[in-house]
């Protein structure tokens, strides 16, 4: 078994597992749609060969490539601790299945795949966090989309919407109409007074002659 000498940098929790970038031949013990689990001789922990690591070509279902009980060459491309669980990731496409020769001796493809998996996990985590925030209701202002500690609303402060310009227009029109009516009434009274003066002026000479 050949392997990359990086054991001194590995966490203590990964002791007892096959070394990172080592190559070995194992047995397929379980097949799922997303990949196959392979057990290596001398190790209890099984590793997952994801469908993306089975072939350089696109694979829809792991059963298209392997069968339970089949022996395959794998390369250890990932050793992770998630909580109390240890995950082993294997690759078949990085190894010649006929000879067991390493097809990615500088681990360039393995590193690229590892970064891609981390980015996918980070994006998934960020999306879940964002959805949780958007569905949160603030206990201070009663609005959705932010936590209480991030609320900018002052306690007990309420806001009143200012009237739109369209709302002020009818009021302005009513005021103008009322002013016009008052002006009309004033002119009417002025005419009546003027007429009354004219009538009186005509009446006085008549009384004198009488």
UniProtKB/TrEMBL annotation:
SMART domains: S1 (SM00316)
Gene Ontology CC terms, in alphabetical order: nucleolus; ribonucleoprotein complex
Record carries keyword Repeat: no
GO molecular function, one term: nucleic acid binding
Ranges of biased composition (kind: Low complexity): 173-182
Stored InterPro entries: NA-bd_OB-fold (IPR012340), S1_domain (IPR003029), Znf_CCHC (IPR001878)
Keyword Ribonucleoprotein: yes
Protein localization: Nucleus, Nucleolus
Region feature (Disordered): 99-123, 163-210
Keywords: Acetylation, Metal-binding, Nucleus, Phosphoprotein, Ribonucleoprotein, Zinc, Zinc-finger
Residue ranges annotated for the CCHC-type domain, each copy included: 138-151
Domain called S1 motif: residue spans: 21-93
Pfam families linked: S1
Subunit structure: Interacts with PNN. Associates with the 60S ribosomal subunit.
PANTHER family reported in the protein's UniProt record: NUCLEOLAR PROTEIN OF 40 KDA, ZINC FINGER CCHC DOMAIN-CONTAINING PROTEIN 17
Name recorded for this polypeptide: Zinc finger CCHC domain-containing protein 17
Organism: Oryzias latipes
Lineage of producing organism: Eukaryota, Metazoa, Chordata, Craniata, Vertebrata
């Amino acid at each position: 078994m050949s392997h990359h000498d990086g054991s001194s940098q590995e966490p203590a929790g990964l002791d007892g597992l096959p070394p990172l970038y080592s190559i070995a031949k194992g047995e397929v013990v379980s097949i799922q749609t997303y990949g196959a689990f392979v057990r290596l001789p001398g190790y209890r922990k099984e590793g997952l060969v994801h469908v993306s690591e089975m072939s350089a070509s696109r694979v829809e279902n792991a059963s298209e490539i392997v069968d339970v009980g089949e022996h395959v060459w794998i390369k250890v491309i990932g050793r992770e601790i998630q909580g109390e669980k240890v995950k082993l990731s294997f690759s078949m496409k990085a190894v010649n299945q006929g000879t067991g020769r390493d097809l990615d001796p500088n681990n360039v493809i393995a590193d690229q795949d590892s970064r891609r998996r981390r980015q996918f996990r980070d994006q998934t985590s960020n999306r879940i966090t964002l959805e949780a925030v958007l569905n949160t209701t603030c206990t201070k202002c009663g609005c959705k989309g932010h936590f209480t500690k991030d609320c900018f609303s002052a306690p007990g402060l309420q806001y009143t919407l200012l009237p739109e310009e369209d709302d002020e227009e009818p009021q302005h029109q009513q005021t103008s109409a009322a002013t016009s009516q008052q002006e009309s009434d004033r002119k009417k009274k002025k005419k009546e007074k003027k007429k009354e003066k004219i009538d009186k002026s005509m009446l006085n000479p008549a009384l004198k002659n009488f």
